[in-house]
């Protein structure tokens, strides 16, 4: 959870990160996996937004993610700008077993690209990969039947084992399609499973690489807390940011 | 009891507001001292959603609805078309009202709607317990045309006795007109019921006082008979953390105005996730998209001053680094005292000597700010008297505090109603807050001069100053008053006048007491004679005007209830340390014994 007091002395760079996406795609589970390396089968829906922090080491830098895990329920939609305002990163989550959740994700991406900090690093995450992997001993029921459920349906569906033969049939969003969209929209892309942990750390690592840390530092923010995230007083923009790809550098996983 | 002085008269009837003409609203207002009708043209209708918030929400909602309908192919009668209802809501009332029909039922509906929404919210007991570590609840107070301000609901649900509810309602509203449209944050302290046994609907309390931090808004609304919507969102809590709750309100208030109940839910769920308010800790708190660093005082008497803080002064941003028990930063305290700058030394002496002071201001924001500032400069000396940052004629303690008798020592009472000027005319000290206004200033600031009540300044019947003014500091303060906002804050950071830490040096002079457990388990009794001997030989850091003044001042101070409390507190601290030592000692001895027994 939030490592409250310890945060007051470190020299880490603060990164405000927001999670967005339709209800029940597993946003909170993704965060829980990243922050506590845990998984809870039937998480209750988030109200408003939860706040969590996690430190990440990237090469010689320490990043501290201030994570705002927003509620997917429609009634909280209008609160979202509060959470993505001044955010340096966003993870937009959808459920690969539910086609409509990608549409919702796309609309979030559009909203972010139009209204959030122009330098925001956006990652698209297709969650619930475990449901379509034949290798997994446990796989869940398709969530297709819960499609027309109310917004407040909770996360991952039940644990009844399905026929191991054709788990791929649960998939409603082909990987290629999502990847193509992500590339076109300039997003980082991952398929993840909060349940098995697959792909989770990678999201935050790749975001960390893409975040213009130098600019955050140069702007005098970031270290400790002096109005770092983009600045509340209107200095949100640091001009054209050089988003150089660090893909060729040695992989540095987040040290959580 | 006289009614509060609300200058928005209820004298106009519906006809005048048919169509909700802003011009009509401002013409009504222009009869009062305000002439801000120029804002009317630029201000958008209260119902127009702001860009960036409500609009995308609406769009999203609509598009989602469309896509699900597309999938289903059949438009369901149970899923109403959102766009149509919106249009209907935004349209002006079509019916012609007659005098026989109930007049504009909107407010009633609004209150009812809010109540229903609040009741529908679920809170489980675990969550409730977590929220209650910080707050009792958030109350929504609306203005009812017949009853005046009324508490429409509290979330999480909190049982309030009728008198408490009325007291909260009136204390959360300014009792005079502050502005045409806008908001204001103030605080109050009221006496409630003593609750011995905790329940989900009302936790037990140590004392019966509760603090209210109120975000009051006023905006034009032609659908209301009054022509205005007036509402306060009030954080009720047992924690006297003015700086902290003011910041929280400044984030929450506007958001609640915009988003309503979901915001209330979101805020309370955030609060539930906060770490415990453990005394003496620095906490990182996430609230509605903002991260705050909050320093919780060790005790109510902990002097939380900038220079003593763990936060680095260079990085210090009062909006993000919060000394919970300090006064809020707005309005800048230095401006409140501008008309009394040269008397600050006298005022400080009066506060320290537990003299009762009537604080008169034009707004509750001013009086509560000044009251908290008084509380702050008193630290680390305990508060011996009663403090009411904003006190109204409706307060249940009104007859207790306002009567023919001399006011009780240490009472600090913040008022805005000119009525108090008369009913407290026998009080020894009156501080009227506000800026010094030269006679011939522009009309814009004439608001303050035109306000009834005593003109800004310090009036005392008895007090004669003991310490010398620091002329250089005074000059600096006067400059800061004319300077930039930054300079005003700087002046605040450097503390306006000597703090009672100097007084606290008495501790040194009276001797720490023997803390060795072998001797008597007490703090060495305080002997004023020894103290004065020590004072004579060591002197004082306070710049007294003469040694006789010094003697007089300390003689008086030793007789104040605050000194008695402070002394008792020191004794408790010493006792606690001794007990701890003894316990450790005993444990040390007991360990082998218990081992032997098993």
Task: Map the helices and strands.
The complex is a heterodimer of chains A (256) and B (598).
Chain A: E1 13-21, H1 27-36, E2 49-58, E3 61-70, H2 80-84, E4 89-95, H3 99-115, E5 121-127, H4 175-185, E6 188-191, H5 200-210, H6 213-218
Parallel strand pairs in A: 1-3, 1-4, 4-5, 5-6
Antiparallel strand pairs in A: 2-3
Chain B: H1 14-17, H2 22-30, H3 38-42, H4 54-72, H5 82-90, H6 106-120, H7 125-132, E1 137-144, E2 148-155, H8 162-171, E3 182-191, E4 209-220, E5 228-237, H9 242-259, H10 261-273, E6 282-287, E7 290-295, E8 321-323, H11 333-336, H12 344-352, E9 357-360, H13 364-378, E10 387-388, H14 398-401, E11 412-415, H15 419-423, E12 429-432, H16 446-450, E13 457-460, H17 471-482, H18 485-493, H19 501-504, H20 506-510, H21 528-538, H22 547-559, H23 561-597
Parallel strand pairs in B: 7-8, 9-11, 9-12, 10-11
Antiparallel strand pairs in B: 1-2, 1-5, 3-4, 4-5, 6-7, 12-13
Strand content of chain A: 15-25%
Oligomer: heterodimer
Helix content of chain B: 40-55%
Strand order of the largest sheet of chain B: 2-1-5-4-3
Distance between the termini of chain B: 72 Å
Low-confidence stretches of chain B: 1-105, 442-449, 493-501, 507-520, 591-598
Rg calculated over all Cα atoms of chain B: 28 Å
Top CATH class of the domain at 13-133 and 171-220 in chain A: Alpha Beta
Percent range for β-strand residues of chain B: 5-15%
Which descriptors would you attach to this protein?
heterodimer; A: 256 residues; alpha/beta; Rossmann fold; 6 strands; 23% helix; globular; disordered N terminus; B: 598 residues; 3 domains; five-stranded antiparallel β-sheet; five-stranded mixed β-sheet; 13 strands; 41% helix; disordered C terminus
């Amino acid at each position: 959870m939030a490592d409250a007091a310890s945060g007051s002395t470190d020299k880490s760079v603060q990164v405000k990160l927001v999670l967005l996406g339709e209800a029940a795609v597993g946003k909170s589970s993704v965060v829980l996996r990243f922050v506590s390396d845990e998984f809870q089968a039937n998480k209750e829906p988030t109200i408003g937004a939860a706040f969590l922090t996690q430190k990440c080491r990237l090469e010689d830098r320490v990043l501290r993610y201030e994570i705002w895990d927003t509620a997917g329920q429609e009634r909280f939609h209008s609160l979202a700008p509060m959470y993505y305002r001044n955010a340096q990163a966003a993870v937009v989550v959808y459920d690969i077993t539910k086609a409509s959740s990608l549409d919702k994700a796309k609309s979030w991406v559009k909203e972010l690209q139009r209204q959030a900090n122009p330098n925001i690093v956006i990652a698209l995450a297709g969650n619930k990969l475990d449901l379509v992997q034949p290798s997994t001993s446990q796989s869940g029921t398709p969530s297709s039947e819960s499609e027309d459920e109310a917004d407040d349906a909770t996360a991952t569906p039940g644990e009844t084992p399905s026929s191991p033969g054709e788990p791929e049939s649960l998939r409603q969003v082909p990987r290629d399609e999502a990847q193509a969209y992500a590339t076109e929209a300039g997003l980082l892309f991952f398929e993840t499973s909060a349940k098995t942990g697959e792909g989770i750390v990678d999201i935050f690592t790749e975001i960390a690489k893409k975040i213009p840390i130098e600019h955050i530092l140069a702007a005098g923010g970031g270290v400790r807390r002096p109005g770092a995230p983009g600045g509340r007083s209107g200095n949100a923009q640091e001009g054209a940011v050089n988003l150089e790809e660090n893909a060729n550098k040695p992989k540095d996983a987040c040290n959580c | 009891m006289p009614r509060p002085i609300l200058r928005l008269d209820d004298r106009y009837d519906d006809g005048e507001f048919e169509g909700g003409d802003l011009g009509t609203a401002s013409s009504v207002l222009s009869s009062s001292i305000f002439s801000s009708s120029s804002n009317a043209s630029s201000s958008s209708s209260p119902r127009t959603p702001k860009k960036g918030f409500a609009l995308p929400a609406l769009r999203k909602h609509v598009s989602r609805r469309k896509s699900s309908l597309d999938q289903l192919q059949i438009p369901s009668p149970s899923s109403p078309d959102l766009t149509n209802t919106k249009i209907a809501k935004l349209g002006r009332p079509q019916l012609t009202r007659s005098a026989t029909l109930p007049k504009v039922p909107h407010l009633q509906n609004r209150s009812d709607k809010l109540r229903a929404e609040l009741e529908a919210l679920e809170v489980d007991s675990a969550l409730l317990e977590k929220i209650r570590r910080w707050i009792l609840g958030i109350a929504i107070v609306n203005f009812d045309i017949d009853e005046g301000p009324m508490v429409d609901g509290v979330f999480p649900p909190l049982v309030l006795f009728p008198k408490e509810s009325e007291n909260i309602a009136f204390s959360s509203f300014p009792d005079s007109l502050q502005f045409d449209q806008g908001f204001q944050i103030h605080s109050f302290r009221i006496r409630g019921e003593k609750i011995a046994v905790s329940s989900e609907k009302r936790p037990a309390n140590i004392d019966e006082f509760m603090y209210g931090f109120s975000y009051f808004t006023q905006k034009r609304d032609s659908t209301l008979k009054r022509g205005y919507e007036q509402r306060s969102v009030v954080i009720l809590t047992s924690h006297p953390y003015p700086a902290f709750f003011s910041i929280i309100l400044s984030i929450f208030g506007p958001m609640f105005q915009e988003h309503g109940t979901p915001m209330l839910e979101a805020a309370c769920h955030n609060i539930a996730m906060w770490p415990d308010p453990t005394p003496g800790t620095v906490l990182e708190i996430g609230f509605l998209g903002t991260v705050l660093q909050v320093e919780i005082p060790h005790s109510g008497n902990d002097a939380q001053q900038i220079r003593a803080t763990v936060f680095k002064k260079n990085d210090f941003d009062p909006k993000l680094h919060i000394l919970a028990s300090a006064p809020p930063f707005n309005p800048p305290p230095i401006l409140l005292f501008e008309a009394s700058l040269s008397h600050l030394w006298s005022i400080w002496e009066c506060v320290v000597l537990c003299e009762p002071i009537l604080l008169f201001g034009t707004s509750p924001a001013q009086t509560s700010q000044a009251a908290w500032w008084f509380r702050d400069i008193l630290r680390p000396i305990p508060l011996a008297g009663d403090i009411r940052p904003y006190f109204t004629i409706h307060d249940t303690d009104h007859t207790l505090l306002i009567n023919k008798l001399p006011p009780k020592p240490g009472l600090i009472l913040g008022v805005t109603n000119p009525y108090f000027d008369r009913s407290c005319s026998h009080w020894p000290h009156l501080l009227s807050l506000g800026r010094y206004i030269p006679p011939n200033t522009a009309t814009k600031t004439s608001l303050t001069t035109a306000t009834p009540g005593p003109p800004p300044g310090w009036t005392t019947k008895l007090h004669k100053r003991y310490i010398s003014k620091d002329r250089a500091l005074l000059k600096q303060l006067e400059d800061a008053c004319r300077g930039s906002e930054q300079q005003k804050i700087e002046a605040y950071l450097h503390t306006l006048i000597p703090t009672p830490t100097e007084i606290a040096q008495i501790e040194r002079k009276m001797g720490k007491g023997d803390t060795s457990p072998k001797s008597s388990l007490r703090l060495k009794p305080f002997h004023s004679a020894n103290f004065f001997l020590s004072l004579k030989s060591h002197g004082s850091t306070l710049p007294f005007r003469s040694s006789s003044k010094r003697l007089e001042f300390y003689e008086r101070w030793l007789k104040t209830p605050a000194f008695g409390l402070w002394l008792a507190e020191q004794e408790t601290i010493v006792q606690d340390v001794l007990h701890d030592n003894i316990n450790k000692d005993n444990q040390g001895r007991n360990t082998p014994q218990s081992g032997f027994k098993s």
